[in-house]
Amino acid sequence: MFIPVKDAYLELTPEEFERYSLDLLFEQTRNLESLVFEHDKVIEAYDGNYQIDGYIEFTFMGVKYKTLVECKHYKSAITREKVQILHTKIQSIGAQKGILISTSNFQSGAIEYAKIHGIALIQLTEADINYEIRDRINVIMAQGRNPFNYGKPYSGVLISKRDVGITCSYLSRSNTSLEEFLKIQTEKQSY
């Protein structure tokens, strides 16, 4: 993993954080067909109403897919339970995808659960600061790198669990990892 975010990110209000996060996601998914974005949406489901920080709808292979976005403006690490709550909302609403964006890092149980259930985890981090990537405890894979996001103050980091370790991919105009993640997961569900 990389160094957790600094308190400076927490100077964003919760609404500013949500809007910034959705702008980042829009930039990442703008090439998807019939793309719809909504902020602060209330969705009625069979078991009640759900307030969702962000809602994304797109068409892929002729099928309409719904993605729920939850934004967590926290100082402490995101636990597995937070990812489970998003997964429950996905099931209740009948959505196919979920994205959880945080100002803090994710516990290993949250990352594992997200991998199993096809939920994207993104940590917002300052652009133009040094970071380290760790594959395992006390094993630094890369050091002294600066993420670049075309003059924007923050970058998103897509965190993925692999068979061996965890990968971190900085999202930007030239890196469409999130769009690919959504397409790959969608293709698996289409069969």
TrEMBL record:
SUPFAM superfamilies per the UniProt record, alphabetical: Restriction endonuclease-like (SSF52980)
Coiled-coil annotated residue ranges, if any: none
Any one GO MF annotation of this record: endonuclease activity
Membrane-spanning ranges: none
InterPro entries: Restrct_endonuc-II-like, Restrct_endonuc_IV_Mrr, tRNA_endonuc-like_dom_sf, Type_IV_Methyl-Rstrct_Enzyme
Domain (Restriction endonuclease type IV Mrr) ranges: 11-124
Lineage: superkingdom: Bacteria
Keyword Nuclease listed: yes
Key words, A-Z: Endonuclease, Hydrolase, Nuclease
Protein name: Restriction endonuclease
Organism encoding this protein: Lysinibacillus boronitolerans JCM 21713 = 10a = NBRC 103108
